[in-house]
Amino acid sequence: MIIAANRAPLRYTEDEGWVPAIGGLATALLPVLQEQGGVWIAMQEDAKAPTRQPYPPEAPDLEIQRIPLSAQERTHYYLGMSNRVLWPICHYMLQHLELERAYMEAYRTVNRRFAEAIVRAYRPGDFIWVHDYHLMLVPHLIRQAIPDANISFFWHIPWPAMEVYRILPWSRELLQGMLGCDLIGFHVEEYVENFLESARYLLGAEIEDNRVLWEGREVRVEAHPIGIDVARFEQLSEREDVRREAERLREEMHAEWLLIGIDRLDYTKGILSRLQAFEQFLKEYPAYHGRVTFYQVATPSRTQLESYQQLKREVDEAVGRINGFFARDSWVPVHYRYRTYTQEELCVFYRAADVALITPLRDGMNLVTQEFIAASRSGVLVLSELTGAAHLLREAVLVNPYDRDGMVQAIRTALEMPVEERIERFRFLKRTVRELDVHRWARRFLEAMQQRPSEV
């Protein structure tokens, strides 16, 4: 098997050297690749990281290959095309869109380099699995070199409505790139339908059910919702040190109820809107003053981009304004932490919280929702209906993140929910999260990859 993704599945630590990355694709796919043998091809993020790395070193059963990029290529391909063009348009954030020809030129160059590395590594019978919006052109380039290759793609973010996607000057070229696949996976049916409509309208492709008929081939487009490593989060949350820290956190809050928000500091996550809704909640319901505290964790992200720097300033100002107006005695209404936390530390928040406010303005899936359910005892999930997770976690309190009044009422509903209803909702959510487990997701997708068009 050959996996291509922007990032490698290993991270370097001073104590242990190279170890598996925590969470994400590494958790799901590194064991699969070790079992089957093969290659993981990624961007070289650090010049010190080896370009070819057998793993594990003592008895290798796979190889990590890293593609070196110049500083300009990394800036234009990654920070430019990937994060200033594809990321905002797929999340309907057109105000952040920066269309620059140099970005697309670098994107073509880097995608070609990925494809060439895959072709060099390929052996007859290999499965090729490409991941995410950084590598849209790669499947078509592989198909040109290896016509009978079995190529699949998983798209990890939303696929927008055709009328939004078509704004891209290179929309057709990027679509054609992805249609080099045999199978394309998305989180939910909404994204499948949006992709099929894009192929039909922009390329004139014939669509039959969930198949795109393109250049004499069938491309299957399917929903494969991803999950988390459920067992890991359940086990972490039951550790004695995690339980003890969760109790200590609640004591420090000096409040009856603890609300949490856990996000990367990204304009898609709705952190500022969430803070404004909590501010309005405190204005409208003064009886909750001193009784409810909101703890917002914001992990630094893409700090080189001005749009992210501006967001940080706005969030800092909102937190200061809310605390300056409402704080009294030992009660601080908003605790804000701008830093990265380990999974163990996050489980402290999940276990301590009564309510999780997960209200992105748009999100492909949002795995924090599942982490919270896996680690919580019986917490209430307030969830944006504009996430992939909302299609699956129907027992959450669903809310439109653009509706501030609705957000205020959702907070109140979560706090005042009867115990029996809280437990019943949580039970259904827990069952769904276990069914979505990331290891099951990987197995299901691999089974789908093994089906050729004649078998479908």
Automatic annotation (TrEMBL):
Q: Which InterPro entries match?
A: Glyco_trans_20 (IPR001830)
In its UniProt entry, the species of origin is given as Rhodothermus marinus (strain ATCC 43812 / DSM 4252 / R-10)
Q: List the GO terms this entry assigns under cellular component, sorted alphabetically.
A: cytosol
Q: Which domain of life does the UniProt lineage start with?
A: Bacteria
Q: Which Gene3D superfamilies match?
A: Glycogen Phosphorylase B
- Give the UniProt family note: Belongs to the glycosyltransferase 20 family.
EC number(s) stated in the UniProt entry for this protein: 2.4.1.15
A single BP term in Gene Ontology: trehalose biosynthetic process
Name a Pfam family for this protein: Glyco_transf_20
Q: PANTHER family under this entry?
A: BCDNA.GH08860, TREHALOSE-6-PHOSPHATE SYNTHASE
- List keywords of the entry alphabetically: Glycosyltransferase, Transferase
| Name listed for the protein in its UniProt record | Alpha,alpha-trehalose-phosphate synthase (UDP-forming)
Molecular function per GO? alpha,alpha-trehalose-phosphate synthase (UDP-forming) activity; trehalose-phosphatase activity
